[in-house]
Fold:
Amino acid sequence: MESFWEKLPRPFMALAPMADVTDPAYRRLIAQTGRPDITWTEFVSADGLFHTREKKGMQDAENPLVRDLQYTEGERPIVAQLFSSNPEMMEYAARYATELGFDGVDINMGCPDKSIEKQGAGAAHMKNPERAKEVIAAAIRGTDGKIPVSVKTRIGYNKVEYQEWFPHLLSTGISTLTIHLRTRKEMSLVAAHYELASEIVSFCRAQNPNVLLLANGDLQSVAEARAKAAEHGFDGMMLGRAIFGNPWLFNGESPADHTPEERVRALHTLATYFSELDPSKHFAILKKHVKAFVSGWDGASELRAKLMETTALTDFQSILNNYLKEPVENR
Ligand SMILES: Cc1cc2nc3c(=O)[nH]c(=O)nc-3n(C[C@H](O)[C@H](O)[C@H](O)COP(=O)(O)O)c2cc1C
Structure:
């Protein structure tokens, strides 16, 4: 199957999945201000999709999980990230993602969150490779060969053990492996292990040269990502937290390249998309962006304090508008 992966530039720059950060609203803004070569959705529970749609018969328009899977054409190619330890649920959700028109399905096998691991999903897959393979096979069945399946994982659970873990993944028919260069135990508390990157790439290429490899962890800029891709031989690089407050990241820009006015305007646009795309979403999720967007200039902390006191979106947008010389029309 010739998939979109082959058509991407090398090395390609990917936007990482980040729950409650790279949601449909922020992704829409990023697609307009600094588009990555490929976008991931935040992770969505395959079991949750099954239960809400099939068991409860919830309408898609009212289903928060379905809303998390909204995307615009400008975000393509876009991959839906799913999590589950249940093959039946994964097959169901992968089929649904295919119907929704996603370019690919990615399975989360690295999340250290206790609530995810308790379900046997996320990083817990590393403890049960046979189950992990069943889940991948189920996703491939669900897509019916129409779109590629990929996995995002870490280099081990309690210790570096990619030599035991990755061969299971590389033998399954996945198109792409995203490697977060830390163990589960390390969470995000230590520096990502780029010192191991070249040997990991060689190991994976020897196991299966057809699987594309992305590195992830601590990348601050596109320039840094390009340099590391060249040094270690990755096909693509994935950037996560560097997108906080910087929707221009994939243009090679930093927040300092933009005036406070531009940054406030971008936050206003994000607030608009936030209210349009999922009015039921908790306002606190929007507020998470405030610190990253509004900092680093005289008066930023006062503006931030005012924004954090608001309890309604219209007040939030009015405060931003009061700051702007040319206010944006509130929608
Ligand atoms: C707030 C937050 C939410 C995240 N949510 C997800 C997720 O839904 N799926 C996933 O695979 N990884 C998730 N991650 C991990 C990131 O995708 C990425 O692997 C990690 O942040 C390391 O990359 P970075 O140093 O470029 O941020 C999340 C990370 C953060 C900080």
Observations:
- Residues 16-19, 21, 42-43, 81, 108, 110-111, 152, 180, 188, 216-219, 239-242 surround flavin mononucleotide (CB under 6 Å).
- Residues 261 and 325 are 8 Å apart (CA to CA).
- The radius of gyration is 20 Å.
